[in-house]
Amino acid sequence: MAEGTWTDEALRSGKGDTLGRLAYARRAAELIHSTHSFESSAVFGLSGPWGSGKTSLVNMIVEELVTAHSKWEVARFTPWATSDILGLLSEFYASLAEVLPKKKGEQFRRALAVTATVAAPAANLIPIVGGVAAEGVRTAGDALGKSPSWQAAFKKASDELKDLGKPILVVVDDIDRLHGDELTALLKVVRLLGRFDGVQYLLAYDDETLYRSMNASGAVNPHDGSAERYMEKIVQYPLFVPPLLQHQQLSRLNAGLLSISREIAGEGAYEDRLGGLVDCFSSLLTTPRAIDRYVAQLRHHIPLLPPDEVDDGDVHILTLIRVSFPALFSAIPRYKSELISGHTGDIKFGGDSLEYEPFDIDPLLEVVPPQLRGVARRLMVSLFPNIRATGQFSTFASSRRQSVHYGEYFDRYFAMGILDHDVSDATVAAAVEAAIRGDATPLTDLFATSTDEIRGLVLSKGASPANQPSTDVGRIHLAEVLAGVANQLPSDDRGLLTDLDQVFGWTADLLGGIDEDTSPSVIVDVLRKLATQPLRIRAWRRLENSVRRTFLEKLPPWYIAVTKQLVQEAADDLLQHLKQGDAAPTSSGVGYQIHFVLRHDAEGLRSRVHELLDSTDVDLAILASRLVSARSTTGGKPNWQLSPDFDQETFNQLAPPGDDPWYHEPVQKVDLHDLSWVNRRRFAAGRVSSPPAPPAVPEADPPAHAQGD
Prior knowledge:
By secondary structure, the chain is mainly α. It has helices at residues 22-34, 54-68, 85-98, 106-119, 134-144, 150-164, 180-193, 207-217, 226-234, 246-258, 271-275, 278-284, 288-301, 312-324, 326-331, 336-341, 373-383, 407-410, 412-415, 425-436, 441-448, 452-462, 472-488, 499-512, 520-527, 533-550, 557-579, 590-614, 620-625, 648-654, 677-684, and strands at 43-47, 73-77, 168-172, 199-205, 237-240, 343-348, 355-358, 630-631, 641-642.
C-alpha cells in the first residue's frame, strides 16, 4: 500500500498485486480465451464482497488476456453511470460498437442500431453511428424491411459481427450498484440482446447485494432461491475473488499500522494490547478496501494530538468501531458516565450491602448486526473495562492515564483535539518542570488564568507521578511555587475536595518524600511562604498523613522539630487573636489553630488561655465567640450563617471550671447572617455552659505501718 493519501483506486496492472492474485487472473484469462467461439457466447461472473478487489482483479484478467492474445478487443460497459433504462441500452450498444474497426465494423454498427430499434421504441435516439443515429437507424431498418422482427435484426447483426472475426470481451463492473429495474434491464440485455456469437461477458458483482436488489425489485422470491437460479441461467462460468487469508489480512494491516505507529517513552508499545484483540480486527477488516480505509482514517486522526495526550491504542479501537459500527460509535458519548463508571448511578438494594446498578450495554449493542455483537462487546470492554461482565478478567484495556475511560480525557477522543474545557498534558508538564527548576511563572500563570474546571485538571495532571521531581531540591522548589498558588486560591471549604485541598495534598506528597536528615528550617521556610497561619496548619495536617505513610517506624527529626515550632507559632497567633477581641479579622481560620494546638499541646494551651482570662484582657464571651462556627449550603452561591451548634466540647478544654455570671445571661436574638465577632459573642450568650470540674484525684492510702497512728 502506497504512502500518502488513500484514494481507493483499483489496480491497473498486475504489477501492483500484493495479494498473490495474479496467477488466478492469468488462469481466468485463459478460461475466457479457451471457451471462446464464433458460434456461441459465454458469460463469466466474478463475485466478491464490496472492497474485496473485484475491479483490480478484473483489470488483471483483462491485462493478461490482451497480453497473451492480442486479437481480443475489450469493451468497458459502466451501467451504473446511466440514469434510466434508455441510457442503459445506449451505454451498452455504444460500448460494444466502439471496439470495432471503423470501416470494417460499419455494417455491424448499422445492424446493431436496427436491433436496438426493435428492442426499444425510443432506440432511434441512441447515438451508435456517428453522433446522430436517427437517420442511420431508419436506413438500416428499411434494408431489412419496414418492420423487421427481433430475430431477423439480431441474426443480421450476428452475421456481420462473425464476418469481422474479432473476439470481444464485454466487461460489466459493479452491476450490484443498480436499482431493481435497472438491474433487471441489464440482465435482460446480457441474456437476450447482447448474446452475439463471438462476444464473451465478464460481470463483476457482490452476490449478497445483487440478490437483495433482485428481491427488492420483485423479480424473484426472496426465500425460495429463485435469485440464485435466475443468475445460473445468465452466468455460465462463476468466478470468485479469492478471500483474504488471515495472514494476508494481518500483513496488510500491520504494514499500514507500522507506517503511522508511534511510541511514548516509558509507556511501551501498544502492540501487545491490540494483539490480544487480533480476532476482532480480522473479523471486521475482511477486505483490502476495509483495511486500507481503516488505516487511512488512522493516518488522519493520529497526528491530531501528540502521543502524550491520548492513548493511541484507544484511538485504534475507537476508529475500528467507527468504520465498522457507525451507529454504535455515535451513541458512545451519550453514555459517557455509565461507560466510564460501569454503573447507572442508581443504588441496587439487596443483601447486606448497597451497591450501584451495573450498566448493561446489551441495548447499546442492538445497533450492531447480531453476528458481530460479541466482537463489538470485546472492543467496548477494552475501552471501558468497568463494564466487563462478572468473571471476565481479560479486558485488554489501557493502563495509561490518558485513556478514554478516564473522564478528563474522554472528550478528546471524539473531538480529536484539546477542547476549551480541557488543558494539554504537555502544557501542564512544562509548567511543573519549570517550577521544579525554580521558575514559578508558568505554573502560577496557568492557575491564575484558568477557570475552576481547568484548575482542577491542572492539579490532577500536575500531581501525576510522571511529573514529580526526583531530587529534594526539585521538591522544595515545586512546594514553594505551590505555596504561592495556594495563597491565590479561595479558601471556600464547601466542597468535599477543594482546589486548595488538592494543592496541600500535592505539597504533602512532595515534602513527605524529603530526606530524613533535612534541616527543619528548610521545611519551615516552605511553610512560611503560605500567607496565614491557618493555611500553614492545613498544609501541615495533610503532610502529617504523608509522613506517617512514608516513615512507618520512626518519624524523621525534621518532622518533630517543625511540628513543635508550628504548635508554638499557632498558640502565639491564637492568643494574639483573642487579645484583639471583636476587632480580630473574621476570616482568620482561628478554628484550625485551636484544634491543631489542642491536639499537640492541650495542657500548654489551656494554661496560657487561663492566664489570659485571669489578666482580664480577654473574657469568656470573647473565647466563646471563637467557637461559634459558620456554615453554608453546598452548591450555588455561598449563603453563610452562624451555626446553631456551639462547640461546647472544645470550650470545656480551654475555659476554667467554675461558675461565672456570664453563663446566666439570657439568650439573645441575633442576625444569623452577621458573622462579626460582636454578633458571635452575643449569639454565644446564654448558650454556653460552665465546664465541669475535673474529677477529684483519690488520695493515696497511708503506709501500712501508719494505719494505727
